[in-house]
Write a structure and sequence with these properties.
By secondary structure, the chain is of the alpha+beta class. It has six helices and ten strands. Strand 4 and strand 5 form a beta hairpin. It is globular, with a radius of gyration of 18 Å.
């Protein structure tokens, strides 16, 4: 049986001024993720699913602690690597399970169809297919954004701090694999979302990031914001 790894995850909406301060703090103690490009960031695009009751959206709005979301994800508009992810939140901690998708499987899911070639190792896809059958899960919104990621690994600490900007909500789910897509920004101009993820404890160097006047944790996800403000 697959072992599920849970992490703590905190989210903080930032103004432009707060971004400058927090970026300076984290860059002094952590390294950027090796996957960033020459511009110092990479693009993430996710296609989220929800059921006929919009349960994922309503669970987030109502603050339900135990919840899960399914999404297809690509990086830098590249369809060579397509991943289906199941993100779960249980008792305040999060976990993520995933499996690769073929391009054909992705295109079928984009249309709300269940692929007929699901492999035994695609357990997350099996679960989604079941929910598509019994809960009428279907693609509902694209979430597109740029991420600047930092990694902090010192002794037993394993921390990831990310800054997500240009968060865009796109209603046209059929445009998921397009090079360029058009939608609506969900944050103010120059604003970003900082996420702090860690395993067992938060080192003092990272904890100091959160000691900034006006910094307030948010319970809402990018998916929720993009559903709420989609065109």
């Amino acid at each position: 049986m697959e072992e599920i790894h849970y992490r703590h995850e905190y989210k903080y909406p930032l103004t432009h001024g707060q971004i400058l301060i927090e970026s300076a703090k984290i860059s002094a103690v952590a390294q950027k993720d090796a996957h960033v490009g020459e511009d110092g960031f990479y693009n993430i695009r996710s296609l989220y699913f929800d059921d006929y009751d919009d349960s994922c959206y309503m669970d987030n709005e109502n603050g339900v602690d135990n919840r899960e979301k399914y999404r297809i994800r690509i990086y830098n508009h590249n369809a060579q690597r397509i991943t289906l992810e199941l993100k779960q939140k249980i008792r305040g901690k999060t976990s993520k399970r995933s499996c690769p998708l073929t391009l054909d499987q992705c295109r079928k899911l984009m249309k709300g169809l269940i692929p007929d070639d699901i492999r035994p190792d695609q357990q997350v896809l099996h679960k989604l297919a079941y929910l598509m059958g019994v809960r009428l899960m279907r693609p509902v919104v694209i979430v597109d954004y740029d991420r600047v990621p930092y990694i902090y690994r010192v002794n037993d600490a394993n921390v990831r701090v990310t800054f997500d900007s240009n968060i865009t909500s796109v209603s046209d789910v059929g445009a998921f694999l397009d090079e360029k897509i058009y939608g609506r920004g969900v944050l103010g101009v120059g604003h970003a979302l900082m996420e702090v993820k860690f395993d067992s404890f938060l080192p003092d160097e990272i904890y100091s990031l959160l000691q900034l006047d006006g910094l307030t944790a948010s319970t809402f996800s990018k998916y929720y914001l993009c559903r709420k403000f989609k065109v």
